[in-house]
Specification:
Blueprint (H helix, E strand, L loop, with lengths): L3 E4 L4 E4 H25 L16 H8 L3 H12 L2 E5 L2 E4 L5 H4 L17 E3 L2 E3 L8 H8 L8 H4 L3 H19 L5 E2 H18 L5 H4 L6 H15 L5 H4 L14 H16 L13 H11 L6 H32 L1 H13 L11 H5 L2 H13 L7 E4 L5 E2 L5 E2 L4 E4 L1 H4 L3 H4 L19 H14 L13 H18 E5 L7 E4 L3 E4 L2 E6 L1
Parallel strand pairs: 4-11
Antiparallel strand pairs: 1-2, 3-4, 5-6, 7-15, 8-11, 9-10, 12-15, 13-14
Helix pairs in contact: 2-10, 7-8, 7-21, 8-14, 12-14, 13-14, 14-15, 14-17, 14-21, 15-17
The chain binds protoporphyrin IX containing FE (HEM).
Cofactor: heme
Protein name: Cytochrome P450
InterPro entries: Cyt_P450 (IPR001128), Cyt_P450_CS (IPR017972), Cyt_P450_E_grp-I (IPR002401), Cyt_P450_sf (IPR036396), Cytochrome_P450_monoxygenase (IPR050121)
Length: about 525
């Protein structure tokens, strides 16, 4: 008999040689599994880290560290345009494939990687406009409301945004002028969440007024997004964790936001929110009720709550991430800020008494270049957008055919840095790349611009393109133009890099500024 290990309390005893034997058998099994999956996969010819070929845990580990964009960038620099990042997943840097994959037909289906951002209702998982992967169900959910997010659909929302931009400026002036340093990152978050509240319910959610995450929603959202980002790697895990009907082990739920959505819906039906809501300036809740009335057989109140929630969950942090990038780079590079200021002055927009109209802001070429460059250098989604290869397989630019159901991952962060499209300085922040260069012919510029636009996946593409794009852009252009027109803003420490945590949406921290009125 060898040495025995006794587990107190359980009355179990293990023989030392049995333990060693079990460890050895487990190691052998793991090795056989790793080697087996390495040699048996049709993707074995594609380069990538050894562990990534056998398990998605490798990717999950890196995504959980919040620096996936840097890891995948390094891997593409090392291996080239194709990197195997999972047993059945390859990440590709082929802008020429975007039009084929992100098409209107939707035959390249979204993978289950987005399923975690759903809810469990009475034991059933309920998907939303973002996480629904079934093309027919997705179309049914999108059709009744798509028109409210088109450029014409968002135009009537401008007064709602004006109200919040005015409040944003008032709060900053009251609290920080003259010259008191504050973190612009936090205030941008309060701004975008309040805009979403106001365009959706005609009432801000209250973060600007309170100057803090008073109800914990913002920090809950951060934790939920961290969780979603990890579940993109092994979506099945979510069934055991957050969607476990017996014992839920997930991130904090969106109970607060769900409560807000339900309460506002009930208040609207009862006419109890007339203190802030007027039919003259309709909001999304009005539109969703209109959609229900027009489609009584397919739209019910649960659907309305789902649409309301998606506005908040998908609309605020994405826009905040992009807006922070605009300000960070404009403030870090004094020549960018000064060129922007000159453009605003030349357009007679200095010290505007009210928020600058979207149409005016959109017509400023340098501001436009700045926003495009910010969306390029750090896209609001910097994880891979995954699609299944459809029946019949797919041919890569290399000539290789990929079998049906292989997962192709397109990371906007990578595609937006493609040197063939964006130039050798693609890693640098340079808004001028979006403008016609000196000596460049109109035709050359037009074709260069088209190539850059075609490679830009910052809002996704095709049938699953971002529904909130026009709303997000309106928020961004208007507030940047208004702030630059009104204030002198200086970054506290221009040499200090900020911190970027790449969650489902990138989260930046550390943009300390001081402001003065112009
Ligand atoms: C600058 C801000 C934003 C960025 C960078 C952004 C980015 C994206 C991207 C890349 C996708 C495609 C995801 C995929 O293919 O898997 C997407 C989809 C989506 N976005 Fe946005 N988004 C922004 C703002 C918004 C806003 C304001 C809303 C508010 C409604 C929104 C709602 C959605 C929805 C519902 C989808 C799924 C659309 C579908 O599958 O039909 N987004 N977004």
């Amino acid at each position: 008999m060898g040495n025995e290990t006794i587990v107190p309390g359980l009355g179990l005893s293990f023989n030392e040689s049995t333990i060693k034997g079990s460890i050895f058998a487990t190691l052998v099994a793991i090795t056989i599994f790793l080697v087996g999956s390495y040699f048996s996969s049709p993707l074995r010819r594609y380069p990538g880290p050894f562990l990534a070929r056998s398990t998605n845990l490798w990717r999950l580990y890196h995504v959980s560290r919040g620096n996936w964009h840097l890891v995948i960038d390094r891997l593409h620099k090392k291996y080239g345009p194709i990197v195997r990042i999972g047993p059945n997943v390859i990440d590709v840097d082929y802008p020429e494939l975007i039009k084929t994959v992100f098409n209107i037909k939707g035959d390249w289906k979204k993978t289950e990687s987005v399923h975690a951002s759903s809810v469990l209702v009475e034991g059933h998982i309920v998907y939303n406009l973002f996480s629904e992967t079934n093309a027919e169900k997705h179309a049914r959910e999108k059709k009744p409301i798509a028109k409210y997010y088109s450029p014409n659909g968002v135009a009537p929302l401008e007064p709602h945004m004006d109200k919040i931009i005015t409040q944003f400026c008032d709060e900053l002036e009251k609290r920080f002028i003259p010259g008191k340093p504050f973190d612009l990152c936090d205030w941008i978050t309060y701004y975008t969440w309040d805009v979403v509240g106001n365009v959706t319910f005609s009432e801000p959610l209250g973060y600007l007024a309170q100057g803090r995450d008073f109800d914990g929603t913002l920090s809950n959202a951060e934790k939920a997004l961290d969780y979603f980002s990890m579940m993109t790697c092994i979506p099945r895990l979510d069934h055991w964790l957050d969607k476990n009907p017996i014992f839920r082990i997930g991130p904090p739920g969106f109970g607060g936001i769900t409560g807000v959505a339900i309460n506002r819906l009930v208040a609207r039906y009862q006419g109890a929110d007339t203190a802030h809501h007027s039919a003259d300036t309709p909001d999304y809740l009005d539109k969703f009720i209109e959609a229900k009335n027009a489609n009584p057989d397919t739209v019910n109140d649960n659907q309305i709550v789902s649409w309301l929630m998606i506005n908040m969950i998908a609309g605020a942090d994405t826009t905040a991430a992009s807006l922070r990038t605009v300000f960070y780079h404009a403030l870090r590079n004094p020549q960018i800020w000064s060129r922007l200021r000159s453009e605003i002055s030349a357009a007679a927009l200095d010290r505007p008494s009210s928020p600058i109209p979207y149409k005016t802001a959109r017509a400023l070429p340098y501001l436009d270049a700045l926003v495009r460059e910010a969306l390029r250098i750090l896209p609001g989604v910097s994880l891979g957008l995954e699609r299944y290869v459809p029946p019949g397989g797919a041919v890569l630019p290399t000539g290789d055919t990929l079998p049906q159901d292989t997962v192709l991952s397109f990371n906007p962060y990578i595609l937006c840095r493609n040197k063939e499209v964006f130039g050798e300085d693609a890693d640098e922040f340079r808004p001028e790349r979006w403008l016609r260069a000196e000596g460049e012919t109109e035709e050359t510029f037009a074709s260069r611009l088209r190539a850059m636009q075609d490679a830009d996946l910052s809002f996704g593409g095709g049938s699953r393109t971002c529904i909130g794009k026009h709303m997000a852009l309106m928020q961004v252009y208007k507030v940047v133009a208004t702030v630059v027109g009104r204030y002198e803003v200086v970054m506290e420490d221009r040499d200090r890099e900020w911190e970027v945590v790449n969650s489902w949406f990138p989260r930046q921290k550390g943009l300390k500024v001081r402001m003065e009125k112009r």
